[in-house]
Amino acid sequence: MAQRSGTPSNARKIPGAAVARLPLYYRALLEVTEEDVDTVSSDRLATMAGVNAAQVRKDLSYLGSYGTRGVGYEVPFLLDRISRELGLTHDWPVAIVGVGNLGHALANYGGLTARGFRVLALVDADPAKVGSRVGDLAVEALDDLVEIVRGRGITIGIIATPAMAAQAVADQLVAAGVQSILNFAPAVITVPEEVSVRKVDLATELQILSFYQSHRRIKERAS
Amino acid sequence: MAQRSGTPSNARKIPGAAVARLPLYYRALLEVTEEDVDTVSSDRLATMAGVNAAQVRKDLSYLGSYGTRGVGYEVPFLLDRISRELGLTHDWPVAIVGVGNLGHALANYGGLTARGFRVLALVDADPAKVGSRVGDLAVEALDDLVEIVRGRGITIGIIATPAMAAQAVADQLVAAGVQSILNFAPAVITVPEEVSVRKVDLATELQILSFYQSHRRIKERAS
DNA sequence: CGGTGTGAAGCCTTTCACAGCA
DNA sequence: TGCTGTGAAAGGCTTCACACCG
Fold first, then answer.
1. The domain spanning residue B119 has which CATH number?
2. More exposed terminus of chain A, fewer Cβ within 10 Å: N or C?
């Protein structure tokens, strides 16, 4: 398929729902890489990612036609293609703001580093915490956030503060030039439209489960 | 609006997208409760929940017509209505499986208890961890999971194990009768259809941010 | 007048189904 | 033959716009 010519270069516009699934395919491909096969079908990827095969093909078609009919997708090739699309060909410097239970756990969580997200700063408002060490990082003062972010070229900010502090922290991250924020605080934050925010809210997730649990016609327990 | 008659009782079928927003309205209403007003408009709720006013009205209309035209929604009444719908009128007993960084943080996280989710068990496969205390709970053995879940009437399981262990843990939770699972492990888990699963995957969220960061025409940093 | 409740329109996403190609 | 790539259909969600009513 020829690249659509018209708008200068990036004519491909991937729907948000498809973007959100690329990491699942990426993970599945990493698993397949461990094996002795070099191609994988949309069917197999679908099972591994927990979605449906037509969806896999449709999603991958937004990246271009990289499969072979009758065979499947070449694993290393597709992996490379998705890495580039997701911007995972280089590491991203991250700052975690709020070093409570959650911030602490995130700082120690190997899964981030393993996937190319380098935590370069831990920041907290509490003077009692500033200076303490978590792993090989020292906790720094919230007042220095803007300076820290600029100085270390941090592009992703993780907010793990109480709800009350979230908006102020977001404002400072934005002021420092951060355009990607992952918000764990149970609060809505408002940012300029060029900034992306994703939120993760534990209580919300549990409440959604609670809804379905309550509305289920209760099945008897396994004997 | 008369209750649709036809199917026995629960004719109202709330779309999944609307269910996922009810916790946001719930939280917003709790905030409004702190104030000296007793009604709130869809406009105000929308701002607080970070959505649009028409959406608030549509979502609330699935619960019935509980607003007053020209005025808004009566706060305590609507709060009660949503609590019931979400099943938050009583506490839910929760088990956390996997007491690593994340499991530990979740166990200590006050936000869960504050919202009616009672952590009644911490379970881990590592014998070295079994017996250790976290808050006022002792870590118990994974082998006893089924027994623990049944004995304490646990209805919600939180999986905070490494990816490799996730499916086996899910199977045991299901065998013990759990029908609601919150999965933090970076793995797809398969469960019977009567079981609800919600997943939270840190790395996935960051990779989605990475995508948008990479595709943004980079703005110069604030001067 | 002001703000809800809701059909209808518009948009986005998923699924289908099959032509096309290695 | 087998599996991809993709138009087209179906389904779901969001937004609009306005009748309706306190």
1. 3.40.50.720
2. C
Tell me: do A118 and A192 sit in the same domain.
Answer: yes
How far is B103 from B82, CA to CA, in rounded Å?
A: 29
Strand, helix or coil for residue B43: helix
The region that residue A87 occupies, defined by phi over 0 for left and psi between -120 and 50 for alpha, beta otherwise, is: left
Residues with Cβ within 8 Å of B2's Cβ and at least 6 positions away in sequence, in order, are: none
Q: Is the pLDDT of residue B130 over 60?
A: yes
- Same domain? A45 vs A97: no
d(CA B16, CA B124): 33
Closest residue to C1 (CA, C1′): B70
Give the bridge partners for A51, in sequence order: none
Nearest CA to the C1' of D14 belongs to which residue? Answer: B55
Domain boundary among A62, A85, A108: A85
DSSP E strands: which ranges in chain B? 39-40, 67-68, 72-74, 92-97, 117-124, 133-134, 137-141, 156-159, 180-183, 196-199
Instruction: Establish if B199 belongs to a structural domain.
Output: yes
Q: Which residue of A has its CA nearest to B201?
A: A200
Burial of A188 (0-12, 13-18, 19+ CB in 10 A): buried
Mutate to test the interface with A, among B32, B92, B179, B208 (most CBs of A within 10 A): B208
CA nearest to B206, candidates A126, A28, A195, A156: A156
B200 near A CB under 8 A: yes
- For residue A163, give its domain range: 92-203
Give residue numbers, 54 to 93 of B, with CB < 7 Å from strand C: 54, 57-58, 60-61, 65-73
Q: What is the mean pLDDT of chain A?
A: 92
At B81-122, the pLDDT tens digits run 999 999 999 999 999 999 999 999 999 998 899 999 999 999
Which A residues 167-186 touch B at CB under 8 Å?
Answer: 175-177, 179-182, 186
Q: Are residues A199 and A97 in the same domain?
A: yes
Where a domain ends, among A65, A85, A105? A85
Q: Are residues A120 and A168 in the same domain?
A: yes
Overall pTM > 0.70: yes
Is B10 among the domain residues?
A: no
For chain B, the domain total comes to 2
Q: Is A125 part of a structural domain of the chain?
A: yes
- From the CA of A72 to the C1' of C21: give the distance in Å: 12
